Amino acid sequence: MTTLESLCSTFSLVFFSFTSLFSLFSLLIFIIRLRPWCNCHVCRSFLTSSWLGSFDNLCDWYTHLLRKSPTGTIQVHVLGNIITANPENVEHIIKTNFHNYPKGKLFTTILGDLLGRGIFNVDGDAWRFQRKMASLELGSVSVRSYAHEIVSTEIQSRLIPLFASVAGSEGENGVFDLQDLFRRFSFDNICKFSFGLDPECLQLSLPISDFAVAFDLASKLSAERAMTSSPIVWKIKRFFNLGSERQLKEAVNMVDNLAKTMIEQRREMGTFLTQKDLLSRFMANIDDDQYLRDIVVSFLLAGRDTISSGLTSLFYLLAKHPEVKREIREELDHVMGPTREGLATASFDQMRELHYLHAVLYETMRLYPPVQFDSKFCQEDDVLPDGTFVRRGTRVTYHQYAMGRMESIWGSDCLDFKPDRWMKKGVFSPESPYKYPIFQGGERVCLGKELALMEMKCVAVALVRRFDIQVLDPERRPQFVPGLTATVRGGLPIRIKEREG
């Protein structure tokens, strides 16, 4: 090792020791300052040892605090954050006073290396331009048909054969992580839909895709930036190209190189004029290659982890509630016919008739939303409908996970998995998007909502009709890894069996 390498190694050791001590010091300061400054008296339970064993997830703790608050809102002044589970406040933030609550510079800085100027990481004119363009594309019949074709092909050629090949396997060889399988499935789909690229993650051999690994790592490390004790920590690491920031840079470079290569090839060959994926469609209207990269990578992030998270939660809940699975099968037999031969997925017309399955998906995401909370930053002083004063520059978070568990919103059975709460006379009946902001609402309502529901329905139809998926420990509540989406720590171990009867 050279002298320079030795110095760098020594500096790195000192730096990481310093940051560890800094993080610990910041936590101690937070605890000390939290006692007098949090306006919600139950926040002080954070300081008791009993709190540590009371909640499986941080989101459960926030749910506890919000349920104790008379207004469904808490303020943590030391963090400069207001957190709410009040539907009237949510409507005010994302609809009534929408322009006063942008994502803000802090959010765009944290995700800037990965998402750049993509639609989910910008405000103002840049956001409006991308949203208008994406709305025209995602709302077209041709794009929805193309997406359905991709999903159906992936199910028929990979998902079903994979499940069939391992069904009935015994021992350790018969145990699979369902979360991993769904992440592979959704990554194949979103890459084909966005880039026209097939990473082949769901092949029978379950190969490792370098692109998928790089994308996962970039997403994970970007999310971890938001959890550091202070932005200065990750900014210093990025400046010196150390640790996680060095890993993030390398991962983002791999994503950039792939996107750049695909864009250059299509421009040279003119193939974007005939292909159906989002990148090709956007290339017809945008000449800036970096901008194209940012837009498409944003769709990769949104369309991969949210789908796999929703599907993982769905089959976890079905394992705990076999009566719901029976009702889904009865509906499928009624709509598609009792035979399970032939096509594995439902047509567009058939999916519109699957009201109960639609309700099951909504109920799943009420309890386990793929994105557990969303934050905005207040531009000018404001007052929320519940009377909470919001100072300029304050981070305001509406907490979807907590909202799904509020008795004031859903009644005394709010913790129960009851798809029938969404049904009226046999027909799915939606609730207000501000009571149920899983797909946001107002001007930022999710453009991919219908595509996401279509993909989850197709998977549910294919798997529930043919297989019995047995969760190894259905009584163990999911513990979530901190991140941009709800990812279950340790995955969801399952066994797969062919359906009997």
UniProtKB/TrEMBL annotation:
Keywords: Heme, Iron, Membrane, Metal-binding, Monooxygenase, Oxidoreductase, Transmembrane, Transmembrane helix. The keyword Isomerase does not apply. It holds the Pfam family p450. The chain crosses the membrane at residues 12-34. The keyword Transmembrane helix applies. Its cofactor is heme. GO terms for molecular function: heme binding; iron ion binding; monooxygenase activity; oxidoreductase activity, acting on paired donors, with incorporation or reduction of molecular oxygen. Heme binds at residue 446. PANTHER family: CYTOCHROME P450 (PTHR24296). Belongs to the cytochrome P450 family. This is Cytochrome P450.
